[in-house]
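Q: What would this chain look like folded?
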Amino acid sequence: MAVIEGETMGAATWQVRASACELLSLSLRYPDDALVRIVVSGEWADAAREIWGALGIALPADWAVGAEEAELHALRAEATRLFVGAPQAVCSPYEGFWRANDDGVQPLMFVNPHSMAVERFCKECGLGQAKGSPNEPLDHIATEFELLQYLASVEAGIVELRPGGPSASDFPGGGAGAAYGRFEADHLRTFAPRFADRLEAEARVPYYRAVAQLLSAYLQ
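A: My prediction, written as structure tokens:
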């Protein structure tokens, strides 16, 4: 999906884009009962086809075949193997891990410059770690899509700005749509295409292969 500045896109397109980011964020979080229910029912795949279709992206006819056979224990075991791992995840979901490797340095949670840059970007948009939430770096790919969902929703006019936070004109780039484009280019696209390729290659269950293909389609 090409990066398009906010002023050249209508509210309806931004709303669809927000829906795509919401679905990707949900899909890449640690699985729970709610996710399994919508995957097994076929609602997850139906929503993806509808949203991606609205973005002009046709998913293959055999996309997500077998994903509806998901089972919570199996998905959690696979998510742990892929995204947590011991001593190292098969497919790290953190931007800082990928970019530290690019820089030839040891990846460090929280304190690497790329993770810190994501945290600063979130703060400039009036967002941060929610109280009571797990103390997780904000450069997790699901959290990055959560940020993009928020920015697209603000640009679409379907959510209000966070109380006490900066105005949209103070966001990086001078607006929610511009901030979306800047974050996608400077952060998400620096590692997400490689993450998607590795996820598809390493996944042992149909659901995660389908998620990888969905992400790749979004990034094209």
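The mean pLDDT is 91.
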